[in-house]
Design brief:
61% of the residues lie in helices and 9% in strands. By secondary structure, the chain is of the alpha+beta class. Strand 3 and strand 4 form a beta hairpin. The termini are far apart.
C-alpha cells in the first residue's frame, strides 16, 4: 500500500505542472462568458452559438486586443444605463449601491439575468455574477422558452421580452448577431474543452485515472470530447427550465396587470 501511494504521489507531481499551466488557468475575464456559453450549449443541446449570441447582445463590448465584441461578466444594467465594471467585486458593490437607493430592476452578469423578474435565480450576488451559475441559469431559462414555443429564434427573442414591440427588434438583432457568430471562428471551443477536461487540483491519482477512463461523448461537428452526461439529467433540467420560464411569464403577467391597475387608478 505504501509503495502504491508513493507511485501515485510521484505520478501526481509529474502532471501537476501541466495542470497549473493549462489554458483553463489562463482564462482572463474576457473569456469567461464564452467558455461557459459553449459548455451550456453542449449540456442543454442548445443550437451552436445561440446562447453565445444572446450573451453578446446582452453584455457584449468591443475588445480592442481581440478585435471583436466579447461578453463581459461584470456587466450591470439599471435605470437604462449599462455599466461595465472592472471586477466581480466592483460589480457586486455597484448592485448593492443601486439596491440601497431602492432600485430593483437590475440585470447582471454575462447573460444579464434580471434580479426583479428572477428573484430566486441565485442565492446571493456572488453567485449571480459567477459566470458558471449565471450562464447555466440563463441556459435553463432559454430551454424552457423553447419548450413552450418550439422555435429557437422565438425563444431567443422571448429571453428579452414577450411583449411584441420589444421582442421583434431584439429578435432581429439577435439573429444578426447569431449569424455573424456562426460565421466567425472563435476560441470558445478550445477554451471550454480545456476548462471542462482539466481535473481539479488535489485529486488523488485513482480519481484522475477514473476520469480518464470515462466514456467520451462527441457532439456532431465538435472536435473535442466531453464526459458523457447523466442520462437522467436532461429530463430533470428541462423540468427545471420549464419551471423557470413559467415563473418568468407569471411575473411579467403580474407586472402587466399592475401597470393596468395603476393606469386605471390615474384615469
Amino acid at each position: 500500500m505504501a509503495q502504491l501511494i508513493r507511485r501515485m504521489t510521484v505520478a501526481l507531481l509529474a502532471v501537476l505542472p501541466l495542470l497549473l499551466s493549462s489554458p483553463a488557468q489562463a482564462l482572463d475575464d474576457n473569456q469567461l462568458c464564452g467558455a461557459e456559453t459553449v459548455r451550456q450549449e453542449r449540456l442543454q443541446n442548445i443550437p451552436d452559438r445561440l446562447l453565445h449570441a444572446i450573451s453578446l447582445v446582452e453584455s457584449g463590448r468591443w475588445n480592442a486586443d481581440h478585435r471583436e465584441t466579447l461578453a463581459w461578466p461584470w456587466t450591470v444594467m439599471a435605470e437604462g444605463e449599462g455599466r461595465f465594471l472592472p471586477s466581480k467585486a466592483a460589480a457586486i458593490a455597484e448592485v448593492k449601491k443601486l439596491q440601497a437607493r431602492g432600485v430593483r430592476n437590475i440585470d447582471v452578469g454575462c447573460m444579464q439575468v434580471n434580479l426583479l423578474a428572477h428573484p430566486d435565480a441565485f442565492a446571493n450576488l456572488d453567485e449571480a455574477f459567477e459566470p458558471a451559475t449565471n450562464v447555466a441559469y440563463a441556459a435553463r431559462f432559454l430551454v424552457g422558452l423553447y419548450d413552450s414555443t418550439q422555435n429557437w429564434p422565438t425563444a431567443g427573442a422571448y429571453y428579452h421580452s414577450q411583449t411584441p414591440s420589444e421582442a421583434a427588434p431584439y429578435k432581429a438583432k439577435l439573429l444578426s448577431t447569431w449569424n455573424n457568430a456562426k460565421g466567425h471562428s472563435d476560441g470558445r471551443l478550445q477554451l471550454a474543452s480545456a476548462f471542462e477536461n482539466r481535473p481539479p487540483i488535489g485529486l488523488y491519482m485513482p480519481a484522475l485515472e477514473h476520469a480518464a477512463a470515462e466514456p467520451a461523448h462527441v457532439l456532431p461537428g465538435r472536435a473535442a470530447a466531453v464526459q458523457a452526461p447523466d442520462p437522467s439529467r436532461p429530463a430533470a433540467e428541462r423540468a427545471e427550465a420549464k419551471r423557470i420560464a413559467d415563473a418568468y411569464r407569471q411575473a411579467r403577467l403580474e407586472e402587466y396587470r399592475l401597470r393596468r391597475t395603476q393606469v386605471a387608478a390615474k384615469g
